[in-house]
Specification:
Structural class: alpha+beta
Helix content: 10-25%
Protein name: Aspartyl-tRNA synthetase
Number of domains: 2
Number of strands: 12
GO molecular function: aminoacyl-tRNA ligase activity
Keywords: Aminoacyl-tRNA synthetase, Ligase, Signal
Shape: elongated
Number of helices: 3
Organism: Rossellomorea aquimaris
Largest sheet: 4 strands, antiparallel
Oligomer: single chain
Length: 180
C-alpha cells in the first residue's frame, strides 16, 4: 500500500513537471528579445511608431496597409517581450487633420488620434495634456510614402475620458472641443 501511494506522488510530480515544461516552452516560443520583434511576429508588414518604452511596458502605434492607424502594448515577461491586443481604425492620408477627427481607443483607457502641427497645438483630455509623437521622427522615405508630413499622434491614458480639446499652444485658445 505504501509503494502505491509513493507511485501516485511520483506520477503526480512527473505530470506537474511535464505540464510546467510544456507551458514554459510555449511561453518561450511566443516571447522575443525586443518589443518590436514581438509585434513583427504577429504582422511583419506594420509600420511601427514607438510612443514609449518604460520598464516592462512599451506602447507602439502602427500604420497597417497604409489605411489604418492602430495601437498595441508590448509587455516583458519572464521569457521576453509579448505583444498584446491590436486595435486599429481608418487612417486617411488625404485628410487635413486640422481638427479632432477620428479619435480612437485602445485597451486600458488609452485614447489617441492624429493632428497636424502638434508643435503649435496642444490636445487635452479632461484638462490634462496629452502626450505627442512627432511622425517626422520616422525616416524621410516613410514620411513621404505615408504622407505624414506635419502630423503628430496624440495619446492619453486614463480610466475616464469625458472631453477632448484642441488648443493653440501659445495662447491656450480652444480650437475645438469634443465630448466623449
Amino acid at each position: 500500500m505504501k509503494n502505491a501511494t509513493i507511485l501516485k506522488y511520483v506520477f503526480l510530480f512527473i505530470v506537474v513537471i511535464a505540464l510546467t515544461a510544456s507551458w514554459a516552452y510555449a511561453e518561450d516560443q511566443d516571447s522575443y528579445s525586443e518589443p518590436h520583434k514581438a509585434i513583427q511576429a504577429v504582422d511583419k508588414d506594420l509600420q511601427l511608431i514607438l510612443a514609449y518604452k518604460l520598464g516592462d511596458e512599451s506602447l507602439y502605434f502602427f500604420i497597417k496597409d497604409k489605411t489604418n492607424l492602430g495601437a498595441t502594448k508590448v509587455r516583458k515577461g519572464i521569457f521576453g517581450w509579448k505583444s498584446g491586443m491590436f486595435t486599429w481604425g481608418p487612417f486617411d492620408p488625404d485628410r487635413d487633420y486640422e481638427n479632432l477627427q477620428g479619435i480612437q481607443g485602445h485597451e486600458e483607457g488609452l485614447v489617441y488620434g492624429l493632428i497636424r502641427n502638434g508643435d503649435e497645438r496642444v490636445v487635452t483630455v479632461d484638462d490634462q495634456e496629452a502626450s505627442m509623437v512627432n511622425l517626422s521622427m520616422l525616416s524621410p522615405s516613410v514620411v513621404k510614402e505615408y504622407q505624414l508630413e506635419g502630423l503628430y499622434i496624440w495619446y492619453f491614458k486614463s480610466d475616464t475620458h469625458e472631453q477632448v480639446k484642441l488648443l493653440r499652444k501659445d495662447t491656450r485658445e480652444i480650437i475645438e472641443s469634443l465630448d466623449l
